[in-house]
Amino acid sequence: MIRLILLFFVASSIYADWPYWPEYQKTPLNEIRPQEWRQKDHVIDGWDWSLPPHVKPAPSSLMAVERSFSLDRSLDKLLEPLDLPMNPTVTLWIKWKDLDPTEGQFKFDVLRQRILEAEECGYSVVLRMLFSAVNFAPEWIHDYDIPFREEHKQSKMTNYEVSHPEFHTRYIRFIDHLGKSGIPHMDALKGAFLGYASPSNGDEGIGPHGVDPDTVPHVIERLDAWARAFKGVEQKVFMGGISQHGLDLGFGIRRGFVEMYLYHIPDEIIGQRVDENGYLWVDESVDLLKRRVFHGEENEEYEEAWATEKRDFRFGPNTDSYTYRYHTSNLRLLQMQSNYVLYNSFSIIPEQMVWVGQTLGRTVEDTPDIWCSLRESYVRGIGPVKNFERWLYQRDSDGFETEPVVKVDQPPNQMWMVQPDHYYDYIARRGKQIGLAVDDRWCGGGPVDVAVKVTYFDMGRGTVDVGIRTANGGARKRIHLKGTEKLRTATFIVNKALFSAEEMEYDIIFKSSRAAVHISFVRVIKL
Questions:
Q1: Phi and psi based region of residue 122 (left: phi greater than 0; alpha: psi -120 to 50; beta: remaining)
Q2: Is 27 within 8 Å of 350 (Cβ atoms)?
Q3: 3-state SS, one letter per residue, for 149-203
Q4: pLDDT digits (tens, 9 = 90+) for 414-441
Q5: Bridge partner list, 489
Q6: Burial of 341 (0-12, 13-18, 19+ CB in 10 A)
Q7: SS3 for 52?
Q8: Secondary structure (DSSP) of 279-348
Q9: Cα 207 to the chain's mean position, in Å?
Q10: For the chain, what are the domain ranges?
Q11: Which residue of 64, 228, 307, 363 pairs with 89 in a disulfide if CB–CB is 3.0 to 4.6 A?
């Protein structure tokens, strides 16, 4: 009995570290449903990821929710139709040897058939073609005495030296024949991975480790071959690393480690910048965003196996932090304005996953909602980094000062980009007055009917007035604080809202009557 009580206490204590998210539970794809939309003023406990039922996914968005690792497997038995507002996508992991088993005799007809099967099931297709490892390459290439690579760290893979002429010329020949097959121009094919060789599974990277790929002749030749093969649809190609030459050819990028949700801060290539006051912002003038090419992430490391010795306890010895990390990683990939994300074939916050599917790949001109996650973390070499923002901005000014509050521990993996001894996040900001600015490009200044959703901590007692200009004057909206200390979300319907304040002037103001208001997340939705 004492042991049972002790176990319960330990489990409760662990869960108490992340009390604002559900406990770990995997929801299969066919059981996922959107959060209920209610178009009226109301308050609920917890988060609100709902959008009006008419909101459809952006044509450019891709939600990879299934994977196939064998060309021999028919996809019509793997892929089930999904009645969800997202663009379901299957990733095909294809080994070179499967398509070129006898030198020069290509089996592109099988690949074409699998793509057509996916299309018939309502899925888009992304190709993950693998070349460099011994178990990826065809057996006939062994006859050319190609040496193996020396990796820069302990390797799980044995890779050929891909720069060797015997390997390189046959790789280029394969890519040229892929282009001639017509597969790159198939409508259902939306993406194709261009990698290199790596110690880990999957041909990661784009060139030799620690070397600028744009200075390496054989890497340039590889990139040019893919450009020939995908001529006219270059935006489908996405690289496993950064190459300016590849970007100039019109290729995109896939990073793939957003589970470490503070990585790539800052990163000028993908437009991630931090201003002098510590606010993280997006520079949309970079090629990747300006050209609207493939821009991907992976948010997939949520199997129980990641909490085992086999995976080096990547995120700690249990799954307790998983839903917090999943929640935050989803916000980050949208903050980065990704248009592709790879998931598992389940979700641990299904309502949020649906919301991602509805908003992924949007621009400020066509997004159904804008939002601001009022938060703060500490990044090595930078210090405090404030907020994840998607065209809705919170900024301090005279009389509108805020401070970070509601401290939560990060997953117990001590992310390498975090400032030492600062392995925690703040997930809200507190102030007597908090002001937010709507991006001037959204709605063109109004008037527009909107729903405003405010996720806050019910701390103290009093009221919070929500100030929004409308064509008929100011909207009269109010949050009532009752001191429950719960995380709650209030929804307000505002007709003919006018978001006409210029640049970072405030369009939405929260003003507290007594206790300072603790706000975590604000979302504005077109009706």
A1: left
A2: yes
A3: CCCCCCCCCCEECCCCHHHHHHHHHHHHHHHHCCHHHCCCEEEEEECCCCCCCCC
A4: 999 999 999 999 999 999 999 999 999 9
A5: 44, 455
A6: buried
A7: coil
A8: BEEE-TTSHHHHTT--EEEE----SGGGGSGGGTTBTBSSSTTHHHHHHHHHHHHHHTT-SEEE--SEES
A9: 24
A10: 54-367, 374-526
A11: 64
Q: Residue 8 is encoded by which pair of tokens?
A: 């319960």
Integer Cα distance of 67 and 157 in angstroms: 21
Residue 29: how many CB atoms within 10 A of its CB? 19
Domain covering 54-367 in this structure, CATH number: 3.20.20
Is residue 51 a contact partner of residue 368, using CB atoms and an 8 Å limit? Answer: yes
Fold of 374-526: Jelly Rolls (2.60.120)
Distances (CA, A) of 66 to 100, 118, 411, 446: 25, 11, 26, 40
The amino acid sitting at 397 is S
Q: Which residue has the tokens 């009557």?
A: 513
Residue 119's Cβ-count burial label (10 Å; 0-12, 13-18, 19+) is: middle
Span 334-379, pLDDT tens digits:
999 999 999 999 999 999 999 999 999 999 999 999 999 999 999 9
| pTM of the predicted model over 0.85 | yes
